[in-house]
Design a protein that fits this description.
This protein is an alpha/beta fold. The protein folds into 2 domains: 144 residues, Rossmann fold; 123 residues, no CATH class. 34% of the residues lie in helices and 21% in strands. It is built from 10 helices and 15 strands. Strands 3-2-1-4-5-6-11 form a 7-stranded parallel sheet, sandwiched between helices. α2 packs parallel to α3, α4 crosses α6 and α4 crosses α9. The longest helix is centred in the middle third of the chain and has 16 residues.
C-alpha cells in the first residue's frame, strides 16, 4: 500500500489531497496542529506544532510521497532536514506567484522568477522554498505551481463572490471584461492531479492551472448557475470600466471593497499561464459550469449574506451604483 505524508492536510487543499489519496487506496497521514479541523475520513492525524524541535518524531518513517503545503521558510527547511532522506517522492505546493512578470501571456515554467528579498512575502517565500527543496532533493521533487484555486470551502471568497452575488439578485456591479481572463482550477481537480503526479513520479516545476477563460464567460456562468438554482431571480448587470471603478475606490482581484478576479490590463499574463505541462502530466479540469454549481451550493450552505474576505458589501455596492 502506498504511504503518503501530508504536511498540513486538515485545511482546504491539504484535506482535499488527503481525501483523494485515501479514495485511491493510499495510507495517508497528516501532520498538523489540527486547528483547521480534522483529517479527511480514512486519514490519520498526527498532531504536532512544527515550531517544536520534536515535531517530526512520530513521522520519521519511510514514505512513498511527502506533500509540503507550507510557505514558511522554517517549516520547509525543517521538514526537509527530518524527512527528505525517507521520501521516495516529494511535492512542494508552490504558486504561479513565483513569477516576476505578469504581463506575458502563455509564459511557461521557464519564465523568470521573483528574486527572494523578503521571506515574509508570499512570492519570495515560495521561490525560497523551491530553491531549498531543489538543493536538498536534486531532481526528485515536484513543484506544483498552483494558479487560482476555487471550489467548495474556498477561504478566500474570491471565486464564490460571483455566484453568491447573482443568487442574491438585484443590480450587480461588474467590471468591464474585454481582454480580461480567469484561470481557475477546482480544488478537487488540483488535489487529484497532485496525487496522480506523485504516483507517476512527476518532477520539476509545473503550472497547475485551470483553462484560460474570458472573465465575461466566468461571470455569465455565475449568473446562469444562480438562475438555474433559483428560477425567477431578477438580476441586472451594471458594468463600469477600470477608470470608473478606480475613481470609486474599488480594488481589483481580492480583499475588502473589491471586485474579485478583475485584474488590471497590465497583469494580463497572470491568468494566462501555459498549462501544457499540466495537461501532459495527466491534469484534468472539470467544466466551468460544474465548478460554478459546486461553488454556489457551498456558498448557500455557508450563507449568501455572510461577511466575506473579498468583494463588495451590499452597502458598498449600493453606494457605488447610487441606489
Amino acid at each position: 500500500m502506498r504511504r503518503i505524508l501530508i504536511l498540513g492536510g486538515t485545511a482546504w487543499l491539504g484535506r482535499a489531497i488527503a481525501a483523494h489519496a485515501v479514495a485511491q487506496g493510499a495510507e495517508v497521514t497528516c501532520l498538523a496542529r489540527g486547528e483547521s479541523g480534522d483529517a479527511a475520513q480514512g486519514a490519520r492525524l498526527v498532531r504536532a506544532d512544527r515550531t517544536d524541535p520534536g515535531a517530526y518524531d512520530d513521522v520519521r518513517h519511510e514514505w512513498d510521497e511527502v506533500v509540503e503545503l507550507s510557505w514558511d521558510p522554517g517549516f520547509v527547511a525543517s521538514a526537509l532536514d527530518a524527512l527528505s532522506d525517507r521520501a521516495a517522492h516529494w511535492t512542494l505546493v508552490s504558486s504561479v506567484s513565483v513569477y516576476s512578470r505578469s504581463d506575458m501571456p502563455f509564459a511557461d515554467e521557464t519564465a523568470e522568477l521573483v528574486e527572494p528579498a523578503d521571506l515574509g512575502q508570499y512570492a519570495d517565500a515560495k521561490v525560497h522554498a523551491e530553491r531549498i527543496t531543489s538543493a536538498r532533493r536534486g531532481g526528485r521533487a515536484l513543484f506544483a505551481r498552483a494558479g487560482l484555486i476555487v471550489g467548495p470551502g474556498d477561504p478566500t471568497d474570491r471565486f464564490g463572490y460571483w455566484p453568491a452575488r447573482y443568487a442574491r439578485g438585484g443590480r450587480v456591479l461588474a467590471p468591464e471584461g474585454t481582454g480580461r481572463h480567469v484561470q481557475a482550477i477546482d480544488v478537487d481537480d488540483l488535489a487529484a492531479w497532485i496525487d496522480l503526479a506523485g504516483r507517476a513520479g512527476v518532477t520539476g516545476p509545473v503550472n497547475a492551472v485551470g483553462e484560460e477563460l474570458p472573465l465575461a464567460a466566468v461571470l455569465t456562468a455565475a449568473r446562469e448557475a444562480a438562475a438555474h438554482d433559483a428560477p425567477g431571480t431578477a438580476t441586472e448587470t451594471v458594468t463600469l470600466d477600470d477608470d470608473a471603478l478606480a475613481a470609486r475606490g474599488v480594488a481589483s482581484w481580492a480583499g475588502p471593497r473589491s471586485l474579485p478576479l478583475w485584474l488590471p490590463e497590465s497583469a494580463g499574463g497572470f491568468a494566462r499561464r501555459s498549462d501544457a505541462a499540466f495537461v501532459a502530466s495527466g491534469g484534468h479540469r472539470r467544466s466551468l459550469a460544474e465548478t460554478m454549481r459546486r461553488t454556489l451550493d457551498d456558498e448557500r450552505a455557508r450563507g449568501l449574506d455572510r461577511p466575506r474576505r473579498a468583494g463588495l458589501t451590499p452597502a458598498e455596492e449600493a453606494e457605488i451604483l447610487g441606489v
